[in-house]
Design a protein that fits this description.
The longest helix is centred in the middle third of the chain and has 16 residues. The two termini are 23 Å apart. By secondary structure, the chain is an alpha/beta fold. The protein contains four helices and seven strands; from the N terminus they run H-E-E-E-H-E-H-E-H-E-E. The chain is globular.
């Protein structure tokens, strides 16, 4: 969900508000008084926003400030990321470990007053992104993704993960089961209703 701040994409994005790659990252104006766009906190502590004086806006980073978040809502960025998957698949990799997938599709703008703001993770938009990743994987034979249940539906648990999300969106899923966290591996069916295989392993 992020790149390095030294990546050529981010260098272009921060160079100008008019740059074609500007919206490949999440930029917002700050609040009055020099405050960041919202009160989100980085996983590593401190604000999840860093002010960039060159263009006078703040960029979002769920992790370190050197790891600016990619904006999957931008069609150009989404296509570039999916083409990156194809680049490696064309070279014969077996699949991908998708890390911190619950942070994909974050919506930093406050909703209308009568709407709930998730403010954290497991965004609805993220599920659509993973379905697009599934589409790329299905262009190839015998490729799979590795997902961690606690990183997708933290509150719902493994059963919801298998039934609702992963086995419905990727050709093959290796579910990493953290038994110490109280997730019961035996509660997971070896196959989903769609017939897609599920590999279980303890981590």
């Amino acid at each position: 969900n992020h790149s390095s701040d030294r990546h050529e994409w981010f260098r272009a994005s921060r160079s100008s508000r008019e740059d074609p790659k500007r919206d490949w990252y999440v930029w917002r104006d700050g609040r009055p008084g020099g405050l960041p766009p919202n009160d989100w906190v980085s996983t590593f502590g401190g604000p999840a926003w860093t002010f960039d004086p060159q263009t006078g806006q703040w960029y979002l980073h769920v992790f370190a400030s050197a790891q600016p978040d990619l904006n999957w809502a931008d069609p150009g960025l989404a296509d570039a990321m999916l083409d990156t998957l194809r680049f490696w698949l064309d070279r014969g990799v077996d699949g991908f470990r998708i890390d911190v997938v619950q942070e994909l599709g974050s919506v930093p703008d406050a909703p209308a007053p009568d709407e709930e703001w998730a403010r954290d993770q497991d965004w609805t938009e993220g599920h659509a992104i993973v379905r697009r990743i599934r589409g790329v994987l299905e262009e190839y034979d015998d490729e799979h993704a590795v997902l961690h249940p606690r990183e997708i539906v933290v509150a719902a648990g493994v059963d919801a993960l298998v039934a609702q999300h992963t086995l419905a969106v990727v050709p093959h899923v290796e579910v990493v089961v953290d038994l110490d966290a109280g997730l019961d591996a035996l509660s997971i069916s070896a196959e989903s209703s769609t017939g897609r295989p599920c590999t279980l392993r303890s981590d």
